[in-house]
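Morning, I've got a small favour to ask if you have a moment. It would help a lot if you went through both lines with me. Thanks so much in advance, here it is.

***
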Amino acid sequence: MIVLYIILLAIVQGITEFLPVSSFGHLCFVQNILGMEHGPGVLMEVMLHLGTLAAVFMTFQKDIRRLAVESIEMFMDVIGNANLYIHNRRTGDELHYAKIISNIYRKFAVLLMVSMIPTMFLGYTARRLVAMSAASKLLPGVGILITGIILLVIDLSQVGGTKAAKDASFSNAMWIGICQGLSVFPGFSRSGMTVSAGLMSGFSRTFAVKYSYILSIPAIIGALIMELGQFGSADMTVGLGFSYVFGMIIAAVVGSLAIRACLRLVHNGKFRFFAYYCFIVGIIALVANFA
């Protein structure tokens, strides 16, 4: 039965990851409704998120490849500038330093790095609280309702602008990183929070969506690294480990099929429809909790 449960959760993850409706909240809701026990830590949820990362890589492979190349070249320029500084100090020469942020992709990469600072801090410090929240039958429903309120406010206020990477500030990136860090709690949609923060920062809808999805990559990889130790815990079995990996593959397949349609919905659709959906699911989750 555990394999069937994980397949169900993987399908839910693959569909909801790319909509601003909290995939983590849906996973916790389904688990609680079915009376499933949460495995050690939040490893299963992280593994399912890792599966949907494959879809993100396929969709934004050009941007991700360019970001990776520019990040490596920036690192090399930093080392080169450090060597130049030492050389200039020793010899009195005034050799010119290389410009670190010399193009849009380098600016984009630095913005992502800045966003990851509060995300890593909040994710690490709240790790145990997140695991306890995931086991709650009440908190995921409350989180989904709050997500719905945020989406409705964003839709009705018509926030957004024309900012792209070259126009974004580091304070914008820090604000988005804080919102992503808060979304580790079940019910708070990571994409909904980060896209909303991007729109409130004046990002264009296209760039806000792209920023949100690419920002998920280091966040999920970091969460996976933190949870990998759970594979060696006393509660983990070989069969359960294989089930988690199988669920990851299912989530990747479903996510790859759903991502393009979901991106179009996020880009062109009204956030209020997602807000109404969150209200319905959140109320059902709360009613099921008290029933």
Notes: The chain has twelve helices and no strands.
